[in-house]
Amino acid sequence: MKPKVVIIGAGGHAKVIIDILKSCGEYEIVGCTSAFGNDKDIDGVSILGDDKILPILFNKGVKHAFIAIGDNKVRKNISENMKILGYQLINVISSFSYIASSAKLGEGIAVMPGAVINAYSRIHDNAIINTGATIDHDNEIESHAHIAPGCNLAGNVKVEEGAFLGVGCRVIPEKIIGKWSIVGAGSVVIRDVENYTKVVGVPARKINYKN
Ligand SMILES: CC(=O)SCCNC(=O)CCNC(=O)[C@H](O)C(C)(C)COP(=O)(O)OP(=O)(O)OC[C@H]1O[C@@H](n2cnc3c(N)ncnc32)[C@H](O)[C@@H]1OP(=O)(O)O
Fold first, then answer.
1. Atom of ligand 1 at shortest distance to CA of 166?
2. Helices (H), the chain
3. What pTM did the predictor assign?
4. Pair (57, 100) in one structural domain
5. Average confidence (pLDDT) over 13-41
6. Sheet harboring 134-135: ordered strands across?
7. Ligand 1 centroid vs 46 CA: distance in angstroms?
8. Among 13, 137, 144, 146, which one carries the catalytic annotation?
C-alpha cells in the first residue's frame, strides 16, 4: 500500500506538485486543503476544506504532507504547524530534474521539471527549486527560499533563509543573497544582497522594500 499524502494549498503551485506526484506514483494523494474555499478538484484531486481538517486526517492515518504554497513566509509558518501536528513533510522531485549524487536535500522541498542541482549543493527544508532553475556546484539554498523558474545560480552562491529569486534571474559566483530578500525577475546579481532588501535590474540594485 502506498503512503498517503495531503497537499496544503490548491493554487498554481499545487497543480504542478500534483502533476509530479501523480507521475512518480509513490504516494496516494488524499486531497488538498485550501484557505480560500475553492471547491474545484485539481486534476481529480479533491479539495477537502481548510487546514482545520489536518488533525482529523492525521488521526485517520495520513502521516505525510507537502506544502504547495509559493509564498515563503506562509510556507514557513505552515511548516512549523505541520511539525507540531506530527506530519512528515515529503520532497516532491520531478523525474525530469537532475540532482547530483553529492548534493544534500532537506525535507519539504520541491524540485520542478528541468531543474538542475549540481555537485555538493545543499538545499534546506521547504525550499522551492522551480522549473528549469539551475543551481550549480557548492550552492547553499537555505530553508523556505524560492528559486523561481529559469534562474541560473553560478558556483558557491548562498541564498539565505526565505529569500525569493524572481523568474529568470542570474547570480554570479560566490555571492550571498540575504535572508528574506527579493531579487526581481530577470535581474543579474553581481554583489551580495543585504538581508530584507529588494533588488532589481542588470546589474541588480536596491529599491524599496515593503513586505
Ligand atoms: C511559477 C511562478 O510563477 S513562480 C513566481 C515567479 N514570480 C516572479 O518572478 C515575480 C518577480 N517579481 C518582480 O520582479 C516584481 O517586479 C518585484 C517583486 C521586484 C516588484 O517589487 P515592487 O516593490 O512591487 O516594485 P514596483 O513594481 O513598485 O517597481 C518599483 C520599480 O522597480 C522596477 N522594477 C520592478 N521589477 C523589476 C524587475 N524585475 N526588473 C527591473 N526593474 C523592475 C519598476 O519598473 C519600478 O521602477 P520605477 O520606479 O523607475 O518605475
1. 9
2. 12-24, 54-59, 72-85
3. 0.97
4. no
5. 92
6. 98-99, 116-117, 134-135, 152-153, 170-171, 188-189
7. 34
8. 137
Contacts of 174 (CB under 8 A, 6+ apart): 155, 156, 157
* Residues 179, 154 within the same domain: yes
pLDDT digits (tens, 9 = 90+) for 89-122: 999 999 999 999 999 999 999 999 999 999 999 9
- Percent of the chain residues past pLDDT 70, beyond the cut: 97
Q: Does a structural domain hold residue 151?
A: yes
Do 171 and 139 share a structural domain? yes
114 Cβ contact partners less than 8 Å away, ≥ 6 residues apart: 94, 96, 97, 131, 132
- Domain membership of residue 78 as a residue range: 4-90
151 plus 68 within the same structural domain:
no
From 19, 180, 183, 200, give the residue whose CB has the most ligand 1 atoms within 8 Å, as the site to mutate: 200
Please tell me the distance from the alpha carbon of residue 95 to that of residue 99, in angstroms, as a whole number. 10
Same domain for 111 and 69, yes or no, is: no
Residues 10-14 have a mean pLDDT of 95
| 137 carries an active-site annotation | yes
Would you say the ipTM is above 0.85?
Answer: yes
